[in-house]
Every structure is written in structure tokens, then in C-alpha cells.
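Quick log. Single chain, no ligands specified.
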Amino acid sequence: MAIDPAEFPEASAAVRGDSRAIGTIDEQIAAARAGNDFAAIDEILAPVVGAATAGDETALTFLLRCIDRHRLAQPPIRQILVDEGDVEDAAQTTLLAVNRAITNFEGRARFTTWLYRIAEREALQVIRKRQRVIDPEGQDFSGLGEQVRRISSVVAGADAIRQALDSLDDKFRQPVIMCDVEGLEYSVIAEQLDLPLNTVKTRIRRGRQQVADIIMAQLEP
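-> predicted structure:
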């Protein structure tokens, strides 16, 4: 759903690439950012966020551009990481995470609050990766492997788990990865995905069961 140009002319024009409108939006965000006024940033970006969550790819591209240009994800990252290279890595993975999860944002929290939680998660991931034993493809599946073993008594390898995960519907795959691969708490996942806590728990439980069922089916003669 595109932005209504009658209701939000500046945002609509900026998303369409109008340089004057983009300049105006940039000035507004920069002023709010300088004053740490994230409520104002939420208000400025509200029509863009609304269109992006509804599937407007042009709006999403502009939203990601604003996050990156104005370093909106960096404050929480810098509270966790010191090295500039690590900060940039976390900022970039935050953009990727927003790109993946934006359609799950339903507005229960402010957008900048949701963004901060994602940025914190990605910053913590930088630290965790230093402490993990990572498989050749770059992911640690030991946590999910243990869940599969508990459900099915099968000890599955990383390749089998990855293939099973890839076959899941995204609404199950994403919370399972966040919980069992990234090690996040249910409450954090619920906030990140903007979903009720019980929905997150149900999807993780069903996702784990589906992974186990897929792996068990692969073992059948």
C-alpha cells in the first residue's frame, strides 16, 4: 500500500525520489536526531513505516536508507560495542534484519523502540560469534539440535537441520532461529517480531516439531 499523497505529501514525494522532499525529510530527521528526539523521528517516518509494513518495497528502500544515512540504529549498538568495525557490522546486519522482519511490525511499540531492540540483538550477536564454535556455513545449530534430540531422540547434523529449517514457513522459521540459533529469550523475540508472547511460544514449539518431523522423515527407508 503506497503512501497517501494527499495526507502525507512530503513523505510520498520523498519515497518517489523527489530530491526536494528527500532533503526536507533529511533535515527533519537530522534535527530530531541531534536532539535525541526519537518520538519526532517516529512521527516523521510513520507514513513510510506504515507503507513498508504493508509491502511497499519503495517505501522500505527509503526507510532503510534513512536508518543508514542518519545512523538511527547506532546508539544502542554503541552501548554494547566499542570497535568501529564491530559497530559497522552490527549496523549493517540490523538493516538486513529490518528488511526481513518489517512486515511483522504491527505498531504495538514505537518503530524506533522496535529498531533499537533489533540493533541490540545484532550487537550482542557480534559478541556471541566470538564465543561460539561456528560451522563452515557460519551458523551454530547446537541449540536447535538439542531440541530436535529431545523431541525425536535423533542426533541431527548441521546440514540436516539447515535443510529442515529452509523448508519451514517463515512465520515458524524466524522465531525458531531467533530462539535456538541466536539464543534470544521469548520476551525479546516477541518484542522484535511485534507478536504476542504466547504466539511466539506456540510458533517456536510448532517449528521445532516440524524440524524434527522433517529430519525423521529423511531417515525413513
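Confidence is low (pLDDT under 50) at residues 131-136.
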